[in-house]
Amino acid sequence: MEQKEDRGRFSSKRKMEAVLRLLKGETLDAVSRDHGVTAAKLSEWRDEFLRGAEAGANRHAEEIERLKQIGVQQPDVQTTAEQPGFAIRGRHQTLARQERAL
Questions:
Q1: 92 found inside a domain
Q2: Per-residue pLDDT of the chain (102 residues; tens, 9 = 90+)
């Protein structure tokens, strides 16, 4: 069971961990029991998390629209693994980057 921090408060990290478990499909009862909080409190954390995610997505969309209006093009983005010459492991990753630079 997760332990509460001093004064009965949970860190943002612990709240997020609990909410992510819910979003991955674990039951409200199981997560609330494991974290030692009521289902109502856990639901409150989930709703707060989702409101924050929605607000962040809205700000991102607004910023993209503002950049388009002033003529800035959004770059084509490749994930690191899609980039040519990328090696998955440790020092090979560094070597592959150096080879691309040559």
A1: no
A2: 444 443 468 899 999 999 999 999 999 999 999 999 999 999 999 999 999 888 888 888 888 888 888 877 666 655 555 555 555 555 444 555 555 555
How far apart, in whole angstroms, are the C-alpha atoms of residue 16 and residue 22? 10
For residue 56, the enclosing domain spans 1-75
Q: How far is CA 99 from CA 13, 80, 84, 94, 96, in A?
A: 39, 15, 10, 9, 5
Tell me phi and psi for residue 98, to 5 degrees.
Answer: -65, -40
User: Side-chain half-sphere of 44: how many Cα atoms within 13 Å?
Assistant: 5
